[in-house]
């Protein structure tokens, strides 16, 4: 079985329009909005048959765009990382973590 590693930036407290049951809410507060993926959604390949005591290091970088709409609010940014297992139909994400920026 092959394992993959994915990393994303999410943001909360984004106010924008939302339709809910036919009603328009002008200042709805959206949470956990995906703003950027460092990897493909299913992740970068880590490998197969990984030893439990092995450390794998990956480095990713991203410059916050100054002209994004809506603007990035660094007070509400989280980095989300997760490990997926190829071929797993019921629980493809086997481990996940998030960290505030």
Describe the structure.
This protein has 101 residues and is mainly beta. The protein has strands at residues 2-11, 14-20, 23-30, 33-37, 44-48, 77-85, 93-100. A hairpin with a 2-residue loop joins strand 2 and strand 3 (23-30). The radius of gyration is 17 Å and the shape is globular. The protein starts with a strand and ends with a strand.
How are the SSEs ordered, and which strands pair?
Elements: E1 2-11, E2 14-20, E3 23-30, E4 33-37, E5 44-48, E6 77-85, E7 93-100
Antiparallel strand pairs: 1-4, 1-5, 1-6, 2-3, 6-7
Summarize this structure as a short list of keywords or feature phrases:
single chain, 101 residues, mainly beta, 5-stranded antiparallel sheet, two-stranded antiparallel sheet, 7 strands, globular
Major pleated sheet:
5 strands, antiparallel
What proportion of the residues form beta strands (DSSP E)? over 45%
Q: Which structural category do the helix and sheet elements fall into?
A: mainly beta
Tally of alpha and pi helices: 0
- What is the alpha-carbon Rg in Å? 17 Å
pLDDT < 50 stretches: none
What fraction, in percent, of the residue positions are helical? under 10%
* H/E element order: EEEEEEE
């Amino acid at each position: 079985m092959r394992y993959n590693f994915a990393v994303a930036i999410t943001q909360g407290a984004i106010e924008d329009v939302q339709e809910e049951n036919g009603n328009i809410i002008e200042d709805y507060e959206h949470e956990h909005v995906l703003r950027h993926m460092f990897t493909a959604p299913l992740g970068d390949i880590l490998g197969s048959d990984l030893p439990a005591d092995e450390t794998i290091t990956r480095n990713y970088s991203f410059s916050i765009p100054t002209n994004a709409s809506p603007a990035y609010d660094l007070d509400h940014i989280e980095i989300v990382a997760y490990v997926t297992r190829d071929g797993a139909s019921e629980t493809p994400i086997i481990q996940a973590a998030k960290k505030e920026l």
